[in-house]
Write a structure and sequence with these properties.
Layout lengths: L1 H8 L1 E4 L1 H6 L6 E10 L3 E10 L8 E9 L5 E8 L13 H9 L3 E2 L5 E5 L5 E4 L14 E9 L2 E9 L5 E3 L6 E5 L2
Antiparallel strand pairs: 1-2, 1-12, 2-3, 3-4, 4-5, 5-6, 5-7, 7-8, 8-9, 9-10, 10-11, 10-12
Length: about 180
């Protein structure tokens, strides 16, 4: 199933359909590519940008997915990239992608995602608790929920302040990213 998760999560996606029908959501592009694959894990690079601004992503991260000892459960550690702006477009540039594979990364403690195969059609899960530190727009922690399907992903990231009031992210549900053809 790890190969299936990798195949489903790698690719180009966008939220254009959702954004065109619901003004609470932006048109966002999401590109991810495989950096390396091992027996029980894989690493991927992911960029997210507002539609039409692929050369200026607002999020660039490396995710390392690995099979846990608990059946069909997969843990994803999240890493930031130093000087990430020099790696913009790495998924379509083999030289940048190769350089990115060797750069030292910084683990985002508390931001691990745990996904489980639902037995039918998706890998589902998210972060646990309040341990994923955030300093975006007065937030002190963030949460993430993720659902990966064969034709897309649903991602719901939210930030909360000291009173646990949501200060960023969608309120009504996840972003729906459809695979580009």
């Amino acid at each position: 199933m790890l190969d299936t998760l990798a195949a489903w999560i790698v690719g180009s996606y966008n939220s254009m359909e959702q954004a065109s029908s619901d003004t609470n959501y932006y048109y966002i592009t999401l590109n991810s590519c495989l950096l390396d694959r091992r027996d029980s894990s894989f690493r991927l690079y992911m960029e997210q940008a507002l539609g039409g601004a692929a050369d200026n992503p607002f999020r660039q991260l490396v995710y390392e997915f690995s099979l846990t000892g608990n059946g069909n459960e997969y843990r994803s550690e999240v890493y930031t990239i130093p000087a990430d702006s020099i790696y913009v477009g790495a998924c379509s540039d083999t030289v940048l992608k190769a350089k990115l594979s060797d750069v030292p990364l910084s683990l985002r403690n508390g931001c691990d995602l745990v996904l489980r195969w639902n037995g039918v059609d998706a890998f589902e899960g998210g972060t646990a608790g309040k341990g994923c530190v955030s300093n975006l727009r007065r937030a002190i922690f963030s949460t993430s929920l993720l659902r990966v399907l064969s034709g897309g992903m649903e991602s719901w990231d939210q930030g909360f302040d000291t009173a646990e009031v949501q200060v960023w992210g969608p309120q009504n549900g996840p972003y729906v990213f459809l695979r580009e053809k």
